[in-house]
Amino acid sequence: MQVDQQLFQTKIKPLFAGAVFCSVATVNAAGKPHVTPIGSVVLTDPQRGWFFQKFTKNIPANAEHCEFATIMAVNDGKWFWLKSLLKGRFKAPPAMRLNVKLGPLREATEAEAYRFQRRVRVFRHTRGHAMMWQDMARIRDFEILDYQPVYIGQMTGQQFK
């Protein structure tokens, strides 16, 4: 799918920014697929993005074997789904897949770490925040190769207009 700057800014980037988590699918050396939930996918422009890689065991090993992956975001908003079901159409994409080429693991910049901490700051006074998100230091960049909208019958016919 061709993606121009307006479509990226108005439909695709908001979908990924609002997703509670995205799924990253990779394949191991034996050809077995593995899906990993990632809560930190950031699209920087129509060709690139990154995510924090902290608890993932399979992505690093699978990336050594195959540098390609698929990232999927789903709009899980209850009001979004209720309004869409009542109207019989989605105003915005309910989900999107990105075929990507994974880059090397690198240290996060201060700005990238701040951006993520701003996203999870509502939880900063919990024990879980300290255990999961306090030390987010390593990022994996990716290059977006292709956009694949998720179509759900007639309800998704107008989502990119």
Could you explain how this protein is built, in words?
The chain is α+β, with helices and mostly antiparallel strands and 161 residues long. It has a single domain, classed as Electron Transport, Fmn-binding Protein, Chain A (Pnp Oxidase, Chain A, Roll), CATH 2.30.110. The chain is 30% helix and 33% strand. It has five helices and seven strands, in the order αββββαβαβααβ. It has a seven-stranded antiparallel sheet with strand order 2-1-5-6-7-4-3. β1 and β2 form a beta hairpin. The radius of gyration is 16 Å and the shape is globular. The two termini are 13 Å apart. The mean pLDDT is 85.
**Distance separating the two termini:** 13 Å
Mean pLDDT: 85
SSE pattern, N- to C-terminal:
HEEEEHEHEHHE
What class would the helix/strand composition place it in?
alpha+beta
What portion of residues is helical?
25-40%
CATH fourth-tier homologous superfamily: Electron Transport, Fmn-binding Protein, Chain A
CATH class: Mainly Beta
Q: How do the strands line up in the largest sheet? A: 2-1-5-6-7-4-3
CATH topology: Pnp Oxidase, Chain A
Give me the CATH architecture, please: Roll
- Poorly predicted regions are none
**Helical element count?**
5
- Taking Cα atoms only, what radius of gyration do you get, to the nearest Å? 16 Å
Summed up, the domain count is 1
Strand content: 25-35%
Per the principal axes of the C-alpha atoms, what is the gross shape? Answer: globular
Major sheet: 7 strands, antiparallel
Total E-strand runs: 7
